[in-house]
Amino acid sequence: xxxxxxxxxxxxxxxxxxxxxxxxxxxxxxxxxxxxxxxxxxxxxxxxxxxxxxxxxxxxxxxxxxxxxxxxxxxxxxxxxxxxxxxxxxxxxxxxxxxxxxxxxxxxxxxxxxxxxxxxxxxxxxxxxxxxxxxxxxxxxxxxxxxxxxxxxxxxxxxxxxxxxxxxx
Length: 169
Description:
Elements: H1 2-26, E1 27-31, E2 46-50, H2 53-56, E3 64-68, E4 73-80, E5 85-89, E6 92-95, E7 98-99, H3 107-111, E8 116-120, E9 125-129, E10 146-147, E11 151-160, E12 166-167
Antiparallel strand pairs: 1-2, 2-11, 3-4, 3-11, 4-9, 5-6, 5-8, 6-7, 9-10, 11-12
């Protein structure tokens, strides 16, 4: 009987340690607050984000990232990489003078994107925007450029509400 209890205790301890490691270093969850990522992500949705991905690689254009700031975390899309020149003119996004296709945006979001820039993204920083361009607090108006170490992960899955379960890419 004592041996069985020890085996169960050992299994529980291992499970707790594994859960701690996974939660601390690999995956975590975040709640989307507000409508700045609409229609891609909705207010109140819970997403799983990959904390390990940026140990192995750099954020890429189009990634939906979790940004850690002292007051709160933000969920935004990476638009400009280090050394990119970002500009919005006549409702169109240009990166390094090349017009970008933004298939993740609907026509209303594109039309509500006001002129901005051009701005050159410094080394070690990123330019981010919300998908709901008319109301998003992002690199254009309040968040500023994002330092690489402020990006704590890439959104992978919507896990709540359950009927919205899907990939976020």
